[in-house]
Amino acid sequence: MEAPHAAPYPRRMIGWRPDPGHSLIELLFVLCVVAVLLGLAAPALGTARDRYAVRAARDALAAGIARGRAFAVVHGGAVVVVDPAAGRLWIERRGGEVLGAPVELARRFGVTLSADGAEGPARIRFDGMGIGRLANRTLRIRRGRAEAGITISAYGRVRTW
Prior knowledge:
This protein is of the alpha+beta class. Helix content is about 35%, strand content about 30%.
């Protein structure tokens, strides 16, 4: 009597078939569902991106004004110039010498600037003690539907909104 032949793999169950993978229809269905979900999320992501860009530009503008105020104390006075048309900010000494590199807000963050009640560049003057010499000024930053702003008091204090 001959010994039964041992199978190299266990016996398969009745009705069991190897899984050949997914069909093309199933893959297309999953891709369509993913595309619909991305389509629904895209406007919200664009709005959030605009909102974050506006906030970052507002904070950079506030930091530039604070830096100008600090330069005024060190150098005996300074002028912070915000040019809404060019979308940039720079700091000048009283003689017109530019201190440091200009901050390119429009190019860096993709925003537009506007200054309320002023045509041309807004000039924020600080004396040697860091006190502003101007009327109240409001600067607005926009991108898409997002908007933020900065209000500078007559003494040079900055309030963001």
